[in-house]
Design goal:
alpha+beta, Beta-Lactamase, single chain, 28% strand, binds flavin mononucleotide
Length: 128
């Protein structure tokens, strides 16, 4: 689907990466909403779903946070395979079973409210 996919209340998108951001796993909700099969995602850099409206600084902050062993939360606009997009509220965890992301990272995403999306859009327009 192109245009916006608005998450359902029950959508919950999970992906796991290695320490460099290469996708190791994605759950059904992630695959369906992004428009890829799991096979198409495994081994790809997570930037495969990057949307050009996302400021670089947001991902810099994400990486600095998880690489120092802390949890990052934030709003992310992602691209779908066929030119659509969807907004998520993401929580990215350094793998808590290992130190400082040595075992990679895990992201869990849920539906943000329209107000939260509007605020993130305003903020990201001021960032690069
Ligand atoms: C666990 C995890 C999940 C990520 N999820 C996303 C995501 O959903 N969308 C996205 O654009 N980048 C995501 N990233 C960040 C990407 O790795 C990448 O930094 C970003 O897409 C920007 O691309 P670039 O680093 O090539 O500029 C995630 C990173 C990690 C560690």
């Amino acid at each position: 689907m192109n245009g916006e996919y608005v998450l359902r209340d029950t959508d919950f998108l999970v992906s796991q990466t290695d320490e460099k951001g290469k996708i190791l796993f994605a759950n059904d909700d992630f695959c369906k909403i992004a428009g890829y099969t799991l096979d198409e995602l495994i081994g790809k850099p997570h930037s495969i779903v990057r949307h050009p409206d996302m400021p670089k600084a947001a991902f810099k902050d994400l990486w600095e946070t998880v690489q120092s062993g802390r949890i990052w939360t934030g709003y992310v606009k992602n691209a779908t395979k066929n030119g659509g997009y969807y907004w998520v509220y993401a929580t990215v965890y350094p793998n808590i079973a290992c130190d400082h992301g040595g075992c990679g990272y895990l992201s869990c995403r849920r539906k943000p409210s329209r107000d939260e999306i509007a605020a993130a859009e305003r903020l990201y327009k001021t960032m690069s």
